[in-house]
Amino acid sequence: MNDGGLVGIVLVSHSAEVAASVAELAKGLAAGGSAVPVASAGGTEAGGLGTSAELISAAAASVDRGAGVAVLTDLGSAVLTVKALLAEGDELPPHSRLVDAPFLEGAVAAVVTAATGADLDAVEAAAVEAYTYRKT
What we know:
There is one protein chain. Strands 2-1-3-4 form a 4-stranded parallel sheet, with helices on both faces. It is built from 5 helices and 4 strands; from the N terminus they run E-H-E-H-E-H-E-H-H. Helix 4 (103-115) runs antiparallel to helix 5. The chain is globular, with a radius of gyration of 13 Å. Strand 1 (8-13), helix 1 (16-29) and strand 2 (38-42) form a beta-alpha-beta unit. The protein is α/β, with parallel strands linked by helices. The chain has helices at 16-29, 53-63, 77-88, 103-115, 120-129, and strands at residues 8-13, 38-42, 69-73, 96-98. 46% of the residues are buried.
């Protein structure tokens, strides 16, 4: 458990609609998920497909409650953009972390775990564990 606020979750997709839908689904499936600060950062400022460092930075700032920010991405340039922001050192809130997890299942696991008041390490571990979910 952490002593501060809940871990924030940022979902970065090349599509604003995909990011927002995954955020809505994750919060809806998680008991207590409505309390978890979740923001989507999808697409470009102009509304097209792509990624935006500015949208990602703003989303991370909006969910930062002092307990850390877990950033989950869909693919490709979303990963590279978050890595670049982390390398800058001051573009994302302190204790922000790129989480290597499946986008949808990882988002659900992260929100469920964050809703319990777990710390950033536990939220990351739950999201990463989603790689092992079996469907057969």
